[in-house]
Design goal:
The complex is a heterodimer of chains A (about 325) and B (about 525).
Chain A lengths: L12 H6 L5 H12 L5 H5 L1 H11 L6 E5 L2 H5 L1 H5 L5 E5 L9 E7 L2 E4 L4 E2 L1 H13 L11 E4 L6 H4 L8 E7 L2 E9 L15 E5 L6 E6 L2 E2 L18 H15 L3 E9 L3 E8 L6 H5 L4 H9 L10 H10 L1
Antiparallel strand pairs in A: 1-6, 2-3, 2-6, 3-4, 4-5, 7-8, 7-12, 8-9, 9-10, 10-11, 12-13
Helix pairs in contact in A: 4-9
Chain B lengths: L2 H35 L1 E13 L8 E6 L7 E3 L5 E4 L5 E4 L10 E6 L7 E11 L31 H7 L9 H13 L13 H7 L4 H15 L3 E8 L9 E8 L2 E6 L4 E2 L6 E6 L5 E4 L1 E12 L4 H4 L17 H27 L8 H11 L2 H22 L6 H26 L12 H18 L1 H22 L2 H9 L4 H12 L6 H6 L12
Antiparallel strand pairs in B: 1-7, 1-14, 2-6, 2-13, 3-7, 4-7, 5-6, 8-9, 8-12, 9-10, 10-11
Helix pairs in contact in B: 1-14, 2-5, 3-5, 4-5, 7-8, 7-12, 7-13, 7-14, 8-12, 9-10, 9-11, 10-11, 11-12
The chains are: A alpha+beta (about 325), B alpha+beta (about 525).
Chain lengths: ~325, ~525
């Protein structure tokens, strides 16, 4: 599994086909369009709805402190949060981690972000109004802002995270986990865990929850680009619970091809951050294998095998493929 | 039926509908063109003759040469007609002559009539400037010797003429140059003046005075002496007239085809449209057998044009489909609108097959469109100013903390001011500047600036620059297609070509293969010497 010797400039289409790599066009046509009904998209695109679904199913999510839907609410923001020193503001329909502000403490009347920047009350109000105006929302539509509990990073994550919270993404097909990765922020990604912004990701073994492989900027890597630490070989805490929550959420969303993002809280364990109806494909590079064989394997199974606890039996066979 | 077979069906459907529409339109356009360019003429032969023999053993015959198809003139089939006054006079159309292809209409009788016979024949001719109207003059040279031989009217063995051929300048190297010399020599023969000129070839060649027929005979004689197979052709120069005289010109076999020459009028290789031949290898229209005193008159009449032309101004709902009838000043807008789907096609290919990212889906195409209106230099200058000023302005606006819509409106206002004063500045420096650059899609530019700024802020400058390059590339390619005058003319004439565009869109929409950029993106999945999976 050497990633430094004999790197190629491009791969030929037949090689990718042989490796079972899923491309964007095929993902969109054969999986997203086939399995994800349009009408259900708000369930994943709007985090308020996602959270409501999670609440109803008993899936852990960060506690919501307030939802700001109108400009009038912006002024009441301070009474809504009370004297909380730590919280996160995020747009309900934001994409790719845009518009998220993490407040880590207070400095008199001002706030301090997790990256150490000081933000005045006025600036925070302005940020809330830009969220409401739709600057960060998917189609530019009017949005709402969620104020929620700040996640305290699990100690095991702290070793490898740089300037932000790592998250765990599980891709589920027909409500069965098919691939998972843990995404770690880098200096280049400016604390965000999004691969296209320069974050690094390690593949996660579905059965054991151990990390291996890795990808950064579409290249196969094995070490964190900032710290040089190996990103493989450690275990995600509470892996089984995390997968269980992912399957439960997938059942509730009724969508066939989704990615569920978790963060691991020091106290709560795995909590759902959001679900995504168009999960990215770089996860394949992290795994050094394509998604298609696993997706086809799921397709080959009878419907009864894809429900409830029986799904656990599939995972070793998926990984063993 | 699943989406895949439905898509295939739709593709076939659009291709078939497109083909049918294109075919119908093409036919209609060709008919309109024919109605405008072609002319119909009626050629009438009126013959009056008596039989010169009194017994029925010998046949009396009048053979009239019939006009035939050439590149430019076409004899309308089935509309030849003839009238004879005497029931004993039989009419038949002889089979084409094997050597020269002439077709003769034969009036014959074995009766020794007392009264003279009258015969009348009419032909409808279609003259068309489009070469497809008739077969090209490609009959082969059936007998080379035949077209080099000496004849009574073409005295090639005459020593005076043979001596004349010696005048051929030595610098004439090619056959065509020698032919050209012969043509010019015979063209210079003077056919003007009041006194009647001679039809004789030798007179024309030696005295340089002769009738047009004499000139034609002179040229054939001279060409034969020089070794070019050549012949006389009799026909008509079509024009309205009750008493038209046949006219004689020349054909020379050169470069595997019979090339026409008219030395009297100075035409070579190409003759005007209205030269209609009726008989090759002869300088008279008819021949006779046992006939005395035939009198043949020729008249030509112009027939009314096609109703498609004369009734074109009558309103008809189907004219809606013809965009070319719109006033000329609307053509440019219509063309650009019709070209936009092609720009969208380029965008779709670059995004879904190549895998380029752009700001907005159709912004690059619309940007390219605006450059068609302005000249591209002015457009580019203004665009650069707008983007630079816009990005700087957007950066400083960030401090004011404004809501999205008012902020966008300020950028829009700024963009408009930049464009207006940019045009004014350019005009100040070089007054020839195009003002149409103000048609730059301001709203699109405003959005581009905003998206660029947000993307640079949120996704990092590298990713943003990648998107910007993609946007520019798509815009450039769209511009190259949109700017082409021929493509524009084509879609304005055949807007139904977009049925094919839609078919291609469906194909692109069903393309599940890898994007070109994915071959690069997933390259690390294919390690050397390792078997993935």
């Amino acid at each position: 599994m050497s990633s430094t010797t004999g790197r190629r400039l491009i791969a030929w289409p037949h090689e990718l086909e042989d490796a079972g790599v899923l491309g964007i066009n095929q993902r969109n046509l054969a999986f997203i369009q086939e399995s994800n009904p349009r009408a259900l998209y708000p369930r994943v695109d709007n985090k308020i709805i996602t959270k409501e679904i999670c609440h109803a199913r008993g899936i852990p999510v960060p506690e919501t402190y307030a939802v700001i839907r109108r400009y009038g609410d912006v002024r009441r923001f301070r009474t809504l949060i009370g004297d909380r020193g730590e919280f996160v503001i995020k747009p309900a329909c934001g994409a790719a981690g845009r518009g998220i502000v993490v407040i880590a403490g207070r400095k008199g009347k001002d706030f301090e972000t997790s990256s150490g920047r000081t933000i005045s009350e006025g600036e925070l109000d302005y940020h809330l109004s830009t969220i409401l105006s739709g600057l960060y929302s998917l189609g530019g539509q009017v949005d709402s802002a969620i104020v929620e509990q700040r996640i305290i990073m699990h100690p095991i994550m702290e070793r490898i995270a740089v300037g932000g919270t790592p998250d765990v993404r599980v891709i589920l097909y027909k409500n069965v986990p098919v691939m998972a990765m843990v995404r770690l922020p880098t200096t280049q990604s400016e604390g965000r865990a999004n691969l296209h912004q320069g974050a690094v990701a390690a593949a996660v073994d579905l059965v054991t929850g151990r990390t291996f492989g890795g990808v950064c900027c579409n290249r196969a890597v094995e070490r964190h680009p900032d710290t040089g630490a190996l990103i493989g070989g450690w275990e995600i805490p509470g892996w089984r619970e995390l997968l269980g929550a992912a399957m439960k959420l997938s059942d509730a969303l009724e969508m066939g091809y989704i990615g569920v993002d978790f963060v691991i809280d020091a106290k709560l364990g795995a909590v759902v951050l959001e679900a995504n109806a168009r999960p990215g494909l770089a996860i394949q590079v992290a795994h050094r294998i394509g998604l298609l064989p696993r997706l086809k394997f799921i397709d080959s199974l009878p419907r009864e095998a894809l429900v409830g606890e029986r799904r656990w039996e599939i995972l070793p066979r998926l990984v063993g493929e | 039926m699943n989406s895949r077979s439905l898509s295939t069906l739709a593709i076939f459907g659009f291709v078939i509908v497109g083909t049918v529409c294109l075919g119908l339109r093409d036919r209609s356009i060709n008919r309109d063109k024919a109605a405008r360019e072609d002319s119909l003429w009626e050629l009438t032969y009126s013959a009056h003759f008596e039989a010169s023999v009194a017994n029925s053993q010998q046949e009396t015959q009048l053979r009239l040469a019939m006009p035939f198809d050439t590149r430019q003139s076409h004899v309308v089939r089935g509309r030849e007609s003839w009238i004879v006054t005497n029931p004993n006079l039989h009419v038949k159309i002889a089979r084409p002559n094997a050597t020269n292809g002439n077709r003769m209409m034969v009036f014959s009788t074995r009766q020794a009539a007392t009264a003279p016979y009258d015969a009348n024949a009419k032909f409808i001719l279609r003259l068309s400037p489009r070469a497809e109207a008739g077969p090209p003059n490609l009959e082969t040279l059936s007998s080379r010797d035949r077209y080099l031989r000496t004849e009574i009217d073409l005295p090639t063995s005459d020593p005076a003429i043979r001596q004349l051929a010696q005048l051929l300048p030595t610098d004439a190297q090619t056959d065509f140059e020698r032919l050209q010399w012969a043509f010019e020599y015979c063209s210079d023969i003077d056919s003007g003046g009041i006194e009647p000129r001679s039809d004789d070839a030798k007179v024309a060649l030696t005295t340089k005075h002769g009738s047009p027929k004499g000139q034609a005979r002179a040229m054939v004689t001279l060409c034969r002496v020089l070794g070019f197979p050549s012949r006389l052709v009799t026909g008509f120069i079509v024009r309205q007239g009750a008493d038209i005289q046949p006219y004689v010109w020349v054909e020379v076999f050169q470069n595997q085809e019979w090339m026409p020459f008219d030395p009297a009028n100075g035409y070579s290789v190409n003759l005007p449209l209205n030269y209609v031949p009726v008989r090759r290898d002869s300088d008279i229209v008819y021949s006779t057998q046992n006939i005395s005193g035939p009198m043949v008159h020729y008249s030509i009449k112009r027939l009314p044009p096609d109703p498609r032309l004369t009734q074109a101004e009558i309103q008809h709902p189907l004219q809606i489909l013809n965009l070319y009838r719109l006033p000329l000043e609307m053509h440019k807008v219509m063309k650009i609108l019709l070209l936009l789907p092609f720009a969208a096609l380029i965008t779709a290919i670059l995004r879904n097959v190549i895998g380029l990212g752009t700001f907005g889906t159709f912004s690059p195409a619309l940007l390219a469109m605006s450059f068609i209106y302005a000249d591209w230099k002015t457009g580019l200058a203004i665009l650069l100013i707008v983007i630079t000023v816009g990005l700087i302005g957007r950066g400083s606006l960030e401090r004011l903390r404004l809501l999205t819509v008012p902020r966008l409106s300020i950028i829009l206002t700024g963009v408009i001011l930049c464009v207006v004063f940019g045009v004014s500045t350019l005009h100040y420096m070089m007054p020839a500047v195009s003002a149409e650059v103000v048609l730059l899609p301001m709203v699109i530019l405003t959005n581009l600036i905003e998206r660029f700024h947000v993307s640079a802020d949120e996704d990092g400058i590298l990713y943003t620059v990648k998107l910007a390059i993609g946007t520019l590339l798509v815009a450039l390619l769209c511009y190259l297609v949109l700017v082409s005058e021929q493509v524009g003319e084509f879609v304005l004439t055949y807007p139904e070509a977009h049925f094919f565009t839609i078919a291609v869109f469906i194909m692109l929409g069903r393309y599940a293969g890898y994007r070109l950029t994915e071959l690069w993106r997933f390259r690390d999945l294919i390690g050397p010497g390792e078997t993935p999976r």
